[in-house]
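Exam revision sheet. Question 4 asks you to relate a sequence to its structure. Input first:
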Amino acid sequence: MRLFYHLARLAFQRQLTYRTANLAGLATNLFFGLLRAAVLIALYGVNSEVSGITLQGAITYTGLTQALIAFISFFGWYDLMNTVYRGDIAADLLKPFDYFSYWLAQDLGRALAILLTRGLTLMVFFALFYRITVPSRPEQWLALVVSLLLALLVSFAWRFLVNLASFWTPNALGIGRFAFGLSLFLSGFIMPLRFFPAWFVTITSFTPFPSMINTVVEVYLGVVTGPDLALALLAQLGWFLGLAAVSQLVLRQGVRTLVIQGG
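Answer key, structure tokens:
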């Protein structure tokens, strides 16, 4: 546990050193958040509520999803893949630490730094332009924190699994782009899933992607409460455990096929 904390702390500090990148990312996410909010305002027109989400909630949704882009690492994460192609994975596998936990610790540290420097800051700036929704009950804040953590875990397990494709192909970048593009669409990032037809929402419910974004948004907005909230959090936990288990199985198979410098 001490090593896990140490790796997370180092990743947290490393992420904070990229000040210019963090500021540039913040500015970019804010710009597109405001642009997406303007589009939703136009789509709502004279309607004050659509599918249980008010206009204020929809505007908040755009800011929140933009704030979570880097936290969830939605547009791609190829760090593990790159270590396979460079051969660095040989040294990583020899370390006295579970390989999945090794990368998870680093991702948690990175994500926490981004959430503090870009996520929270973006929501503050967003509130200067629009009147956004803010959770009002302590239990809602607690559920939000739990949902955020579980969303990150589900996202990491998915990204870890996608990166393992590098064990079987000389260039898994295309696979990664397809996988991350799919998660971007099915997670509810492009548009709240409640806006889609019921059959489409049913399909997405059989995938881990809504647990990465849609659940967090609905918890934040207070759309899911009571038993539905508990089920949503349990679904996030279940997807993480399932993806983590599959990742471990695929990793074992990948290591068996790994060849580094003819070894």
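Marking note for examiners. The mean pLDDT is 90.
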